[in-house]
Amino acid sequence: MASVQNTSHEKPLLEISGLKTVFPTDDGIVNAVNDVSFKIDRGQTVGVVGESGCGKSITGLSLLQLVPSPGRIEAGEIQFYRNGEEAPLDIAQVAPKSELMREIRGNEIAIIFQEPMTSLNPVYTIGNQIAEAIVLHEQVDKKTARERAIEMIARVGIPAPTQRVDEYPHQLSGGMRQRVMIAMALCCSPTLLIADEPTTALDVTIQAQVLGLMQELQAEMGMAIMLITHDLGVIADLADEVVVMYAGRVVEKGTVDDIFYNPLHPYTQGLLKSIPVLGKTPQKTLPSIPGTVPHPLTLPVGCSFQARCSERMPACEQMPELMGETENRGHAVRCWLHTF
Prior knowledge:
By secondary structure, the protein is an alpha/beta fold. It has two domains: 190 residues, 3-Layer(aba) Sandwich (Rossmann fold); 71 residues, no CATH class. 29% of the residues lie in helices and 21% in strands. Helix 3 packs across helix 4 and helix 4 packs across helix 6. The two termini are 34 Å apart. The mean pLDDT is 89.
């Protein structure tokens, strides 16, 4: 877990309130992110977990105004407390192509995507791609930027950095390419790193190395991390706080201990039951959540999980609020079982 924590009296680094991101289609409006609220403190790791299509990646892209067209942020606030500024900046109100947004991206808030080969330019050396961000945000000359790029390549554990700086993405292994992505993201010392499934395409050994590297750099640089993943094992190992999403909404959030030792929402409970436990007597099949995630254009009225829920009751035909969160205790759940 991250070692740097804020007290409840300090302002968070980022606070998301009622975020709604939509995609207009010929068949109707898709609410990819719907009324999402949570905060990220300085130096903290917040894990965002859920099945594919739950809205976790779009939430991350919304924070950088990178929602692909025709998607847009329709409502809500993304209050970003920039270094040295008392009042927050509402990123949701900043134009995606504005100079201010370009200043924030990569410099103050950086992102790592799950597949580096789709993010790295195949016709430029890795040194050029790391140096480009340094030149853009720190106004240094190309020689200085190249030296900084070599330092970052060494810092993320890639051997022979003076040689690798002139190599192209296809000349590197998958693990090394992901390390390059980390170097690019951290070269300007951002205060928040959004890591979107950063180890999905890697084997288990390389995955552990990359996650360990992220922890080391976080401790060294004091940055916060928003870790987007479907892997609860990674969340248990790295996160301080956990946000569980389903069908575009937050259904539960709390500390990592709250979520793993006292899950309240039936969906969270189902996710945890489906994890194999090392040393436990094997069963024929692992428990699974019945049914499938509803189509975003045909979400049921009320709770989106009701068709798959073993605890369904008449009240589920209305959407419950996110209940239980207080200033001193952040465990909250969107379920009628815990509102009476």
